[in-house]
Amino acid sequence: MPELPEVEVTRRGVAPHLEDRIVEDVVLRREGLRWPFPPNLRELLAGRRILGTGRRGKYLLLTFEHGTLIVHLGMSGHLRVLPEGIELKKHDHFDLVVRGPEGRRVLRLHDPRRFGAVLWHDHDDGELEQHVLLRGLGVEPLEDKFSGALLHQATRNRSAPIKQVLLAGDIVVGVGNIYACESLFRAGINPKTAAGKISRARYDKLAEAIRDILAAAIVQGGSTLRDFIAVNGQSGYFQQTYFVYDRAGVPCRNCGTPVRQIKQGQRSTFYCAVCQR
DNA sequence: AAGCCTACCTGTTGGC
DNA sequence: TGCCAACAGGTAGGCT
Questions:
Q1: Domain range for residue A207?
Q2: Do A263 and A152 reside in the same domain of the chain?
Q3: What residue is closest to B13 (Cα–C1')?
Q4: Is A2 a residue whose pLDDT tops 90?
């Protein structure tokens, strides 16, 4: 589910309910997800004020004075903000209960496949950016540092296909399977092309495509394919604007040639063999 | 070091 | 309708 736009939509959704609120309770309903939950989370957070929210790649960050709560939604996770007393659903694993002007609110993490994570980074343990999960991440695609020049320079020694290099996340973060396919279509680049063989001019186009597509997806509330919903329960709409993703055999919106589906590194790739060379 | 593969899970879908 | 295999948006970690 959640690539960068969905995580950013989630962050923007939860932010007004969390910022400057005091945590009153933490409820853990299992040992953990991908990794164990910090067992002392309630002691760490109860009575503490949430100073702000952030995002690094697909990691959602809740900042406290003494540390940062790191939340990852994995493939199937979503967060909702609910009034107290809403009935639990299967796979509701974690609640953060906060008090605000409108009373108590519950931030509830739902994650059927349990590839998500909730971790704590204590400020005594050094810089957040040096956290083991964050330190290897590439640049943020919506920040100024991201450019065709950066993509070009960073890929000179990469022989892997551009699609897989984008997904790897060590050069640029947040571009998952959907947005990698869509961006390569927009830039007219065949996903199988070796990353190191793509020209600077084509990378300029790709960087622009990634930026534009991610930004547009955020405006649309992200993509709702199977189960993504925003904090308020609304679906995203970006999937209606897909050019290639999930459209195998359907005529290309640009040239009419049927969209192809192939496997790259066990993941589906969708592309137009005519528009993408 | 790049690049490939596996593993972690449940839910949905499509073929028979 | 039921059964089963294949597949799904992410990514760390282990191997070559």
A1: 148-271
A2: yes
A3: A226
A4: no
